[in-house]
Amino acid sequence: MERDIGKQRSDTSHGQHPLAIMLSCIDSRSSVEIIFDLGLGDVFTIRIAGNVARNKFLGSIGYGCKVAGAKLILVMGNTRCGAVTTAVDLDFSGRAVNEATGCDRLDLIVHDIQKSIGPSEKLAFANASVDRRRSQGNRRNRVSFRRQQRDIL
Ligand SMILES: [Zn+2]
User: Fold this and answer.
1) In this structure, are strands 20-24 and 72-76 parallel, antiparallel, or unpaired?
2) What is the pLDDT of residues 64-120, one digit of tens each?
3) Residue 131, CB half-sphere, CA atoms under 13 Å: how many?
4) How far is the CA of 91 from the centre of ligand 1 (A)?
5) What is d(CA 141, CA 110) in angstroms, rounded to the nearest whole number?
6) What is the pLDDT of residue 61?
7) If you measure from the C-alpha of residue 57 to the centroid of ligand 1, how many angstroms do you get, rounded to a whole number?
8) Ligand 1 midpoint to CA 51 (Å)
């Protein structure tokens, strides 16, 4: 489908009425606009490593639904998520985030992902294959997010 960016820009210059809010990982392979062939004004997008939606994002989601009129919230996970894998691996190893990654500001994200994995699931993660662990972590984040959004919207 060909897009007329100039027309889209003109159509949205006086306001926006996005259909949906999309929450996804920062993974460079998971751009929702490209995957769903979206144009200007079609959706609000929120991206964060590992799809961890916490209070910081709920205001944007609330605005998108209640003020801008979005009717759908889509949380898109991705397989082989580096953030989830790193969080799980660090949880098992007990290593500090900045020691393992060299990044000083990843602690909050990694800890949010780790918190989404309950104690009873840790043994299952330890016994699962690497791909299965990545998928389980991402799915767990989505379920946790849905429970939060129900209270907000
Ligand atoms: Zn990811």
Assistant:
1) parallel
2) 999 999 999 999 988 888 888 888 888 888 899 999 989 888 898 899 888 877 777
3) 1
4) 17
5) 12
6) 92
7) 17
8) 7
pTM of the predicted protein model:
0.74
CA of 39 to the centre of ligand 1 (A): 23
Distance 35 CA to ligand 1 centre (A): 15
Q: How far is the CA of 71 from the centre of ligand 1 (A)?
A: 25
Q: Give dist(CA 111, CA 124) in Å, integer.
A: 19
Rounded to the nearest whole angstrom, what is the distance from the C-alpha of residue 106 to the centroid of ligand 1? 14
Pick the CATH number of 14-152 from 3.40.140.10, 3.40.1050.10, 2.60.120.200, 3.40.1190.10: 3.40.1050.10
